[in-house]
Design a protein that fits this description.
- It contains 17 helices and no strands.
- By secondary structure, it is mostly helical.
- It folds into 3 domains: 126 residues, Tetratricopeptide repeat domain (Serine Threonine Protein Phosphatase 5, Tetratricopeptide repeat, Alpha Horseshoe); 69 residues, Alpha Horseshoe (Serine Threonine Protein Phosphatase 5, Tetratricopeptide repeat), CATH 1.25.40; 80 residues, Serine Threonine Protein Phosphatase 5, Tetratricopeptide repeat.
- Helix 5 packs antiparallel against helix 6 and helix 11 packs antiparallel against helix 12.
- It starts with 10 loop residues before the first helix and ends with a helix.
- Keywords: Repeat, TPR repeat.
- InterPro entries: TPR-like_helical_dom_sf, TPR_rpt, Ycf3/AcsC/BcsC/TPR_MFPF.
Length: 294
């Protein structure tokens, strides 16, 4: 999932809006740190937090803790990230950005129910300009929870407020696809790709929708495009393998499947049950690949 932390244009703009204070030099250093060195940024924030213990405003300290959480998020230390966000919330529980960031971090730990609760709380404190982001994040989580009708509803809200959110088009397409509305799902993909023709999630999603519509040759072009853009995307490789199998291109399908399983070993379990591989199950290379499960 792409990061949707949503601090109104990033850290520099966010900090530029803050009032000048005795610790402005710390925040300037933080802005530089967030461009390259998150660990250095954390050290700067910890120093600022230490100094805030003597008479500093709770809201300002909460902001520093939120920024610390964001820094930990970017180095994928989600435990420390959540700890910082929760400390920030205790000091300033009515901050949209920190509730939203907490929800995004919970997604990384696949704690979707908790993430949904965070986004619902974020909505209570959202300004009008925050609503599209909040609804988009909720749509993603609701899809992960298989609550597709609700996901579709909030994605529509997000896109009515801001039709330029690429992630919302993806989430809408995914929900529509899971609900069996493949033609509408395709339209949503195309709208999103108008905004970003190289969005990897949308390219793979469009390929999947093409498969659902039995437009297999077209599906293959999107998976091939996706694997060229990001050769490490296991989902694109796996779906490419499925499509090649459907098209009776057995050896090519196994080639793609070898890449998909090397990138994500759990695909070995998926391939055993995958109906799309019926055409290649008898191939020696497929059997050899499947034997790695044992």
């Amino acid at each position: 999932m792409s990061s949707k932390l949503g601090l109104g244009g990033g850290f520099k703009k966010f900090m530029a809006r803050m009032k000048e204070d005795p610790f402005e030099h710390f925040l300037d250093a933080l802005a530089l740190g967030f461009n390259a060195d998150y660990e250095e940024a954390i050290e700067k924030i910890d120093r600022a937090i230490y100094l805030t213990n003597e008479g500093y405003d709770k809201i300002e300290k909460a902001t520093l803790l939120m920024l610390k959480g964001l820094a930990y998020y970017h180095i994928e230390n989600y435990k420390e990230s959540l700890s910082a966000f929760e400390q920030s919330i205790k000091l300033n529980p009515k901050n949209f950005s920190v509730w939203n960031a907490k929800g995004v971090t919970l997604i990384e730990s696949e704690k979707y129910e908790e993430a949904l609760s965070s986004f619902e709380t974020a909505l209570r404190y959202a300004e009008k300009e925050d609503l599209p982001l909040a609804w988009t994040n909720m749509g993603y989580v609701l899809n992960e929870l298989d609550r597709f009708e609700e996901a579709l509803e909030v994605c529509i809200k997000a896109l009515e407020s801001d039709p330029a959110i690429v992630d919302a088009w993806y989430d809408k397409s995914y929900a529509l696809s899971e609900l069996g509305n493949h033609d509408e799902a395709l339209v949503a993909c195309e709208e999103g790709l108008k905004l970003d023709k190289e969005d990897l999630n949308l390219l793979v999603q469009k390929g999947i929708v093409m498969l659902d519509l039995k437009r297999n040759d077209e599906a293959l072009t999107y998976f091939e495009h996706a694997t060229k853009l990001d050769p490490t995307d296991e989902l694109a490789w796996y779906n490419k393998a499925c499509t090649l199998s459907i098209l009776n291109r057995g050896e090519d399908a196994v080639d793609a499947l070898i890449v998909a399983t090397s990138l994500e070993p759990e695909n070995l379990l998926e391939m055993v049950e995958e109906e799309d591989f019926e055409n290649i199950r008898k191939l020696d290379r497929f059997k050899k690949l499947a034997s790695q499960i044992l």
